Amino acid sequence: MSLQDKKKWNQKYRDAEYISGKEPCEWLTDNADLLTGKGKALDLATGEGRNAVYAASLGYDVLAVDVSDIGIKKAKALALEKKLNINALVADLDDYEFDKDTFDLVMCFNFLERKLFPKIRQSLKPGGLIFYETFTLDYLKYSGFKKEWVLGYNELLNVFQNFRILRYREVDRDEKGFASLVARKKES
Predict the structure, then answer these.
(1) Could you tell me the residue ranges of all domains in the chain?
(2) What DSSP element (H or E) covers 2?
(3) 75-131 pLDDT, tens per residue?
(4) Which of 36, 50, 115, 131 is the most exposed place for a label (fewest CB within 10 A)?
(5) Please, what's the b/e burial string for 148-160 (b: 16 or more CB within 10 A of its CB; e: otherwise)?
(6) What pairs with residue 165 in β-bridges?
(7) How confident is the model at residue 8 (pLDDT cuts 50, 70, 90)?
(8) 3-184 has which fold?
């Protein structure tokens, strides 16, 4: 990421309105039966914090990380509005230090940086869950995205092949193309 990325996302989040709304991603709520609400959660590229706040509402001790200080400010405001607490950090994920075996839950929605995959896997405790959802090659038909910004077909399955895949889908409909995964890190 870069200063340019920070400026782009600050520009996007500058309005009082929440661009994706205040409710969590559907993939997260549809699979909430897998969430225990116990332990530490990490929300990568949290944006305005809707998923981080949802995880906090379930009982997780949440760390929300994003490059945008405006996004983080809105995430904190959303948590306050819902009378919840999240820890929030403005950080460039390229430079962020992932602690090993720390999180019971890692969430990543609508963000892709392939070099973070090994760090994400290592940051989860054995038995921890990864919730990941982002755009696939199918989305290129509907957007101006670059190919390197989207997942290849079955890419998430390959990235997390040493995990137990609990739920997975690839969707191409209504001008949306994305993959969604929930996987559990194997116990040592």
Answers:
(1) 3-184
(2) none
(3) 999 999 999 999 999 999 999 999 999 999 999 999 999 999 999 999 999 999 999
(4) 115
(5) eebbeeebbbebb
(6) 183
(7) confident
(8) Rossmann fold (3.40.50)
